[in-house]
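Assess this:
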Amino acid sequence: MEAMLCGTPVLTTAYGALPETVDADTGRFFDSDGEFARGFAEIAELCAHKCRESAADRFPIAKTAKAYLELYARILDGEALP
């Protein structure tokens, strides 16, 4: 997320939360050496400004901070996380 907010597209695998955070404007996914090479070439063409805006629009800092505070409050209230 930090890279995208700085305007740096990412090249990553599609594991964990990454499919939820990376989109066509912010990066590419790969599973093989060939896909890595293709993705590496493609991210060079992505617009830094569009990458930054896309990430910021989808994950605004105020909304993210509020979600963390709500999560911490639930944990402090005794909620067990999955």
In short: The CA atoms of residues 26 and 51 lie 5 Å apart. The mean pLDDT is 93. The chain has one domain: 2-76.
